[in-house]
Specification:
The chain is mainly alpha-helical. It is 56% helix and 4% strand.
């Protein structure tokens, strides 16, 4: 084995798992990034991943890999930057173990993240939410499961990783009904449930008929749904819902759009952004400000309360007939 293989293994077992006690989601994200990088490096160098050396993963190769993500895999800038962050984390660890590659490692660490324009968040209106929920066929077991999952996602704003990680014991339907989860950064939080969500989950839990430690939304074999499975099913229901709500054709519906929808519903109900940040499990309040920018209704209410300046529209009048002719062309 070359220098890269033991360093990579120690990065996961020693740095991420033992020292940092990284979450399963973080480990999975780093694993996927480095698997893609090693596959790309093997195709470029003609060497098997297990025989690559630290010095062979240099800045030009990493730069080409990042370009490959955007050009060939269709990844956005945010995904590119997230992959780069994982690579830099590995190389910061490698710098401590391989000072002989300090120059090459330094050039990799110097690769900057790519700047990007921040778009307004996509969210669903109440009518679009109704159409999406109605698209799940509740005459089937799968449809009833998916209907409960979609309703919980729209009402609570849980991340997809939080949704698929829920167990039966995480749902409390008595007085003060709520769902508890461990979110990003291993933060525990509880989210209250509405009466409609409680009613749907009560029926679903009775039909699911599993143990408290079993997945809340299992597959047919009893295992937790995967992230890809949830994304696929949401896309399927969004496509079916366009017949009833054509405006959905212009929106790319994903689990994160349902999270945005929950936040926008809270904001439009007059909930303070600091409360929304706690509700969603945001680390910083600034993250919640994106919903203020996306809420046109809120801006219209604000401008309706402002006093307009006393002005009149002006009209340009040319002082010469030739100029008037040219302006009229």
């Amino acid at each position: 084995m070359s220098a890269l293989a033991p360093t990579l293994q120690a990065f996961f077992t020693d740095r991420l798992i033992r020292q940092r006690q990284a979450s399963p989601q973080t480990i999975a994200a780093y694993r996927d990034t480095l698997r893609l990088l090693l596959t790309f490096a093997a195709s470029r160098t003609g060497r098997e991943p297990s025989r690559l050396d630290v010095g062979e993963i240099d800045a030009p190769l990493v730069g080409a890999f990042l370009d490959h993500l955007e050009r060939d895999r269709g990844n956005g800038v945010r995904t590119r930057n997230a992959r780069l962050a994982a690579i830099r984390s590995l190389f910061r660890y490698a710098a401590l173990r391989h000072p002989e590659h300090a120059e090459s490692i330094g050039r990799v660490l110097a690769i900057p993240p790519k700047r990007f324009s921040r778009r307004l968040v996509t969210f669903l209106t109440d009518r679009e939410v109704e159409a999406l929920l109605a698209a799940a066929d509740r005459t089937t077991w799968t449809g009833r499961r998916d209907h409960a999952l979609l309703l919980l996602a729209v009402q609570t704003g849980l991340r997809v990783s939080e949704l698929i990680g829920l167990r039966g014991g995480d749902v409390h339907l008595g007085t003060g009904a709520h769902v508890s989860c461990r979110g990003k950064g291993r933060k525990e939080r509880i989210t209250p449930l509405t009466r409609a969500t409680v009613a749907v989950l009560r029926v679903w839990l009775a039909e699911r008929d599993g143990e408290a430690a079993d997945p809340l939304f299992p597959t047919g074999t009893g295992t937790p749904l995967s992230r890809d499975a949830v994304e696929h099913r949401i896309a399927k229901y969004a496509a079916a819902a366009t017949a009833a709500r054509p405006s959905l054709r212009t929106k790319r519906i994903s689990p994160h759009v349902l999270r945005h929808t929950a936040a926008m519903r809270l904001l439009q109900a007059g909930v303070d952004t600091s409360v929304i940040a706690l509700w969603l499990g945001h680390e910083r309040l600034e993250t919640t400000q994106i919903y203020l920018h996306a809420d046109l209704t809120l801006k219209e209410r604000v401008i309706a309360r402002t006093a307009e300046p006393n002005v009149r529209p002006g009209r340009y009048r040319p002082s010469d007939t030739l100029l008037a002719f040219l302006d009229g062309l």
